[in-house]
Amino acid sequence: MKTISVVIPAYNEEECIAVLIEKLKKILDPLNYPYEVIIVDDGSKDRTFEIIKEQTGIHKFLKGIRLSRNMGHQAALDCGLKHASGDAVISMDADLQHPPELIPQMIKLWEEGNEIVYTQKLENQDTTLMYKLWAKTFYSMFNRYSQIKLTPAGSDFRLMGRKSMDAVLSMPEYHKFYRGLVPFVGFRSTTLSFHVQKRFAGKRKYNFKQSMRLASDGLFSFSDFALKIPFIIGGAAMIIILLYLLYTLILLLFHGTVIIQGWTSVIAILILSISIQLIFMGVLGVYVGKIYFEVKKRPVYFSDEKVGELGKIQ
Ligand code: UDP
Ligand code: MG
Q1: Which end of the chain is more exposed for a tag (fewer CB within 10 A), N or C?
Q2: According to the CATH classification, is domain 4-142+151-209+300-307 in 3.90.550.10?
Q3: Which one of the ligands is nearest to 205 CA?
Q4: How far apart are the CA of 200 and the centre of ligand 1, in A?
Q5: Which of 7, 11, 20, 70 has the most ligand 1 atoms within 8 A of CB, as the residue to mutate?
Q6: What is the pLDDT of residue 56?
Q7: What is the pLDDT of residues 93-117, one digit of tens each?
Q8: Of ligand 1's atoms, which has the minimum distance to the CA of residue 11?
Q9: Are 87 and 161 within 8 A, CB to CB?
Q10: CA-to-CA distance for 117 and 98, rounded, in angstroms?
């Protein structure tokens, strides 16, 4: 019998947990697959873990892991995925923005031979115009410059079969960006669209800085394009200078004189070239910073407490 795992990172989601578990139970029970639900409490400051603990007394399918502190959504997701033992693993958010009603359809598509079932958000009433603009810019930049293509308006709500799950987990990088790691491994896949629901309760946990960090993790982990820009700009500048030198040589030969320009142009070119060099030192700095964290090989998360029978599905 094939088994299903549902993995949910949760940070300060005390109002959502009980309702989420009820909903999942209602949807998963009739499907007749043995299943487990793993909720990873990402160092919440509210009663999230206490509620998970209480609920594990009621539901055998429920398991919980508390991280030692707030490690971030991707780290919590990583922890949950590593502990999932199902033949198919579904990841979703705790705030009910990812409708559990989509799960039966995801499982059906998996049974039909798709190793990965992605989802794509149709619209989101909870996001601001600024966020929408930011997301659009990020996806178009990513798809232009990286080795893989992301589904625009993609999300971490997806199903992965055991083969692709193990492939994704075999990548040991520190800066996890699951939305990129999953398409990177390949395999047969399909995409389902869904209407993003309103957050059941509480506020958005990602602030703008965290969203920027996630986007930069994604972009710089899957593209080395920024490192190549100096070649393009340096090459173009060299051609311009060579043409200019040729022009002065012609003037010297035919008119016997060289036009001497004023200070402004000299200073402008000097400052421009210094600032371009500084920008590219910054780009190098970003990559060196990433390497710095990668070589330390620090674990992505530390777990503090575990509840429920992790490691098997009854
Ligand atoms: N989350 C987390 N750790 C964090 C921030 C968020 O585990 O540091 C969880 C959060 O509880 C939710 C999911 O990640 O289940 C997505 O977060 P949120 O709803 O704030 O983001 P949005 O849906 O607005 O992109
Ligand atoms: Mg949300």
Answers
A1: N
A2: yes
A3: 1
A4: 13
A5: 11
A6: 94
A7: 999 989 999 999 999 999 999 999 9
A8: 11
A9: yes
A10: 14
Triad 78, 123, 43: Cα angle to 5°: 30
The answer to whether 29 and 60 have CB atoms below 8 angstroms apart is no
User: Using one digit for the tens of pLDDT, what is the confidence trace for 263-272?
Assistant: 777 777 787 7
State in Å: Cα 11 to ligand 1 middle. 6
Structural contact between residues 40 and 125, judged by C-beta atoms closer than 8 angstroms: no
Q: What sections of the chain are H helices per DSSP?
A: 17-28, 48-58, 73-83, 103-111, 129-145, 162-169, 178-185, 208-222, 225-255, 263-296
* pLDDT, position 200: 79
Nearest CA-CA partner of 40 in 3, 4, 13 = 13
- Which residue, 33, 6, 163, 212, is CA-closest to 91? 6
Check pLDDT > 80 for residue 225. no
- Global confidence as pTM: 0.79
148 CA distance to ligand 2 centroid (A)? 25
| 38-42, 179-183, 228-232: least confidently modelled range | 228-232
Residue of the CA atom closest to atom 16 of ligand 1:
93
- Residue 16 above 80 pLDDT? yes
50 CA from centroid of ligand 2 (Å): 21
Cα 224 to middle of ligand 1, angstroms? 28
Residue with CA nearest ligand 1 atom 25: 206
Q: Report the pLDDT value the prediction gives residue 153, as an integer from 0 to 100.
A: 76
